[in-house]
Amino acid sequence: MEYLAVASLRRSRSKIKNMACEFVKNGKMMSSESIISPYFPEEKWVVEIKDILENDKEAKEVLVSIFEVPEPLRSVNPVAYAPQLLALGPYHHFRPKLYQMQRFKVAAALEAQKDWLVVDFQQVVAEMEKQEVHIRSCYQRHLYIQADTLVWMMAVDGLSLLKVLDCYLYYYKNLPDSSEKNPFAEFSERYTDLDMILRDVLMVENQIPMVVLKSIADKWPGSDDLQILFEFCEALSPLQLACKPPASEIVKHKHLLDLLYQSICPKYDRNSSFQTGKEDEQQDSTMENTATPDCSVFEVGFQQPHSSVMLD
Fold first, then answer.
1. 88-146 pLDDT tens trace
2. Are 202 and 85 in contact (CB under 8 A)?
3. Which terminus, N or C, of the chain has the lesser number of Cβ atoms within 10 Å?
4. Mean pLDDT over the full length of the chain
5. Rounded distance, CA 206 to CA 40, Å?
6. pLDDT tens digits, residue range 184-204?
7. pLDDT number for residue 29
8. Between vectors from CA 260 to CA 167 and to CA 214, what angle results, nearest 5°?
9. Are 182 and 170 contacting, i.e. CB atoms less than 8 angstroms apart?
10. In the predicted model, is pLDDT for residue 283 greater than 90?
11. What is the model's pLDDT at position 181?
């Protein structure tokens, strides 16, 4: 009986090996590194490329602005470049550890929609649908998620991001010495460290495209062209900001991290409308009178040889 069992096992292995060889010969087995899979077959790839080339002129441009951390850099210290508490956008959205925050993000997004916007949540999603191709083109990695999933994700994450920034500014302006800062206090008594959340907000792989935030701002009468983004950068930056972009220029940045980086290290050119100390004495005076930012959020990152916050 033992001999028969061994023989049967060998026949099974041989059969599986032969089937694998046939798959390879017929071109049915793709490399594990390929984007082609049962969920994204070659036919769908052809349809997608045709649609981009024939129907969407905007997507022909190279719009990639949210990159993955290069593997040689990530391998040195993986934790430094991955969010640990809050996922924003598709790169880390479905990681089980981070998905625990999903219900808080949804609650924060609903609160922001009710308090700020003149439209209901479904209309926010509809605005994201109009920008779906543009949103996909912002990410370096091909996104293996359906259109509905992506637009709902952007609506929730975009609104919850703005709610977190608004919460931080409230603490910064009104309770700077508070030791307990929970941006989700309205939805849960469980203590959530705001500094840890802000660390994740500034992760390069955790950025939300500016086109998403602009779509929200268009339905937010009090957005003031997303001045909240620059106010956040001004309060959080451990370095003196070199310039202050006009309100109309904020939405032209790629995302929040890009705005922070360009405010610290601006690109000077003849057509630049940024205000600087040399060009505008009044702006220089304003920057000098600005309170020293609370830089405690950077303590975790700058204690390590490789900063946990990447400015891209």
1. 999 999 999 998 899 989 999 999 999 999 999 999 999 999 999 899 999 998 888 89
2. no
3. N
4. 77
5. 24
6. 766 555 556 788 899 999 999
7. 38
8. 65
9. no
10. no
11. 67
First CA to last CA distance, the chain: 65
In whole angstroms, give the CA distance from residue 135 to residue 102.
21
The type of residue at 236 is L
Are the CB atoms for 42 and 50 separated by under 8 Å? no
Q: CA 308: distance to chain centroid?
A: 15
Structural contact between residues 214 and 191, judged by C-beta atoms closer than 8 angstroms: no
Token pair 């309060």 is found at 235
Q: How many residues does the chain have?
A: 312
Nearest partner of 306 among 65, 83, 78, 68, judged by Cα: 78
| Residue 217 and residue 225 in contact, taking contact as beta carbons nearer than 8 Å | yes
**Amino acid at the residue 102:** Q
